[in-house]
Amino acid sequence: MTFQEFLYSRIRSFGHAFRGWWYVLKTQHNAWIHALVAILVFIAAFWLKLPARDWAVLILTVTMVFAAEFVNTAIEAVVDLASPVHHPLAKVGKDVGAAAVLIAALAAILIGLLILGPPLWIKVSGWLGV
Q1: Contact indicator for 56, 111 with CB cutoff of 8 Å
Q2: CA separation, residue 122 to residues 44, 49, 54, 111, 130 (Å)
Q3: Which of 48, 64, 66, 63 lies closest to 115, judged by CA?
Q4: How far apart are CA 111 and CA 58, in angstroms?
Q5: Structure confidence at residue 67 (pLDDT)
Q6: 52 secondary structure, DSSP code
Q7: Helices in the chain by DSSP H: which ranges?
Q8: Packed helices 52-82 and 3-27: angle between N→C axes, nearest 10 degrees
Q9: Which of 36, 75, 79, 104 is most buried when burial is the number of CB atoms within 10 A of its CB?
Q10: Per-residue model confidence as pLDDT tens digits over 45-57
């Protein structure tokens, strides 16, 4: 394989990945909710002037939620292809994928509260004179 062929195959791989990303955003309403919450979290982190380590944890947490959502969407597509009729095991596969997203989202909420909560409370309580 020449360097040019290698480079072209990497570019194609990125194209496939971006098409998958776009598919999730087009078809999965929860992905839009995750995106909105992530934007709000990043705005709050910027406003609170969080240190780099907190930013790193928040970025990893948001990434974990999106990765779970993307894998869940892939599982759903493959299950629908393999089992176009309703089957109990197909339901298990889809339910477990959805549970993975739920666990990631709940963990993200907890991490967000732990990281954003204290500095946010300090700012808000200063305004309220508490």
Answers
A1: no
A2: 13, 13, 17, 18, 9
A3: 48
A4: 8
A5: 98
A6: H
A7: 3-27, 29-47, 52-82, 88-128
A8: 80
A9: 104
A10: 999 999 999 999 9
**Residue 114: pLDDT over 90:** yes
Whole-prediction pTM value? 0.89
What are the residue numbers of the active site? 69
Residues 70-88: pLDDT tens digits? 999 999 999 999 998 999 9
Cα–Cα distance list, 85 to 80, 82, 96, 111 (Å) = 8, 9, 18, 39
List of domains in the chain: 29-128 (1.10.287.3610)
Instruction: Please report where in the chains the tokens 């204290």 appear, as a residue.
Output: 118
CA distance 98 to 19: 22
